[in-house]
């Protein structure tokens, strides 16, 4: 099978580590970003310097026309994808539900849940043997928040990730006979820039004592799990959610 991978949010954090690790294992990688082109360029440069094949693809995953254009660009430049990692995701500042605006809730679901749906739909249209594809693997990045609820912090985020969990299960069962495996990874507290975007840059280290392993995880530790789920080494896993949390 050709190994062509799209990593949404592949320019920073968990997505960037996944793009680099997958490229080292022979995947041609489309590195998606929405705002920060410099970070995406750097990931692509690192992949090419190591002898791999990668391109940047700009798109807001919440926006259907932009997602369609992104897939057309990948079709033309790398060929039909056989791997998809939905890593693009956002948090907002800590707040109680009775303080949240509807606009905040809608943005959270638009990027985290709707973005995952749109990219997975386009992937299935290209991967499914029913549509003449070669099959493939989809990995959705959820969060352990979907099992904890994130009370007083970001229930909106936790709920959007719970939607990703159930979407992963349902889609996995829907396409199980069409050559496509669909799995998810639920990271715990991982040391990336996402916490700064939620106004708490030190969050991963500040809460380290609440983690059984007493430390936050690294983006690389999540990427290792994701790339395993993309690979044939996990050939009988579908509909699975893998918690990578240091025991949390
Ligand atoms: P991060 O370091 O903040 O990186 C986020 C990435 O997503 C960036 O590449 C960003 O691109 C991209 N992105 C954001 N909104 C986008 C949109 N609308 N369309 C396309 N790309 C978009 O985040 P991270 O910590 O690596 O998180 C990656 C995933 O893991 C997320 O789904 C997150 O919810 C999940 N997760 C993270 C943790 C953690 O502790 N870090 C824990 C559990 C789950 P730009 O730079 O261009 O904006």
Key phrases:
single chain, 248 residues, alpha/beta, Rossmann fold, 9 helices, 7 strands, binds NADP nicotinamide-adenine-dinucleotide phosphate
Description of the molecule:
- The protein is an alpha/beta fold and 248 residues long.
- It is 44% helix and 15% strand.
- Helix 4 links the parallel strand 4 (83-86) and strand 5.
- The protein has nine helices and seven strands; from the N terminus they run βαβαβαβαβααβαααβ.
- It has a seven-stranded parallel β-sheet, with helices on both faces.
- It has one domain: NAD(P)-binding Rossmann-like Domain (Rossmann fold).
- The longest helix is centred in the middle third of the chain and has 26 residues, at 102-127.
- NADP nicotinamide-adenine-dinucleotide phosphate (NAP) binds at residues 8-9, 11-15, 32-36, 39, 60-62, 87-90, 111, 115, 141, 143, 187, 189-190, 192-194, 197.
- NADP nicotinamide-adenine-dinucleotide phosphate is lined by residues 8-9, 11-15, 32-36, 39, 60-62, 87-90, 111, 115, 141, 143, 187, 189-190, 192-194, 197.
């Amino acid at each position: 099978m050709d190994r062509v991978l799209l990593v949404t949010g592949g320019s920073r954090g968990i997505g960037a580590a996944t793009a680099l690790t997958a490229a080292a294992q022979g995947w041609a990688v489309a590195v998606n970003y929405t705002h920060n082109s410099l970070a995406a360029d750097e990931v692509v440069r690192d992949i090419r310097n190591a002898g791999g094949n990668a391109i940047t693809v700009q798109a807001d995953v919440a926006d259907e026309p932009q997602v369609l254009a992104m897939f057309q660009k990948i079709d033309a430049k790398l060929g039909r994808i056989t791997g998809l990692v939905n890593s693009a995701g956002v948090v907002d500042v800590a707040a109680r539900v009775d303080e949240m605006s509807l606009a905040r809730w809608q943005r959270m679901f638009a990027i985290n849940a709707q973005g995952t749906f749109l990219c997975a739909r386009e992937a299935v249209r290209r991967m499914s043997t029913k549509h003449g594809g070669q099959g493939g693997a989809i990995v959705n990045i959820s969060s352990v928040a979907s099992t904890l609820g994130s009370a007083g912090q970001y229930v909106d985020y936790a709920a959007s990730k719970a939607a990703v969990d159930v979407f992963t299960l349902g889609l996995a069962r829907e396409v199980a006979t069409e050559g496509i495996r669909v799995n998810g990874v639920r990271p715990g507290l991982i040391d990336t820039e996402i916490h700064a975007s939620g106004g708490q840059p030190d969050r991963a280290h500040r809460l380290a004592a609440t983690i059984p392993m007493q430390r936050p995880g690294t983006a690389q530790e999540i990427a290792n799990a994701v790339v395993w789920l993309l690979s044939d080494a996990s050939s009988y896993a579908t509909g699975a959610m893998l918690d990578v949390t240091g025991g949390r």
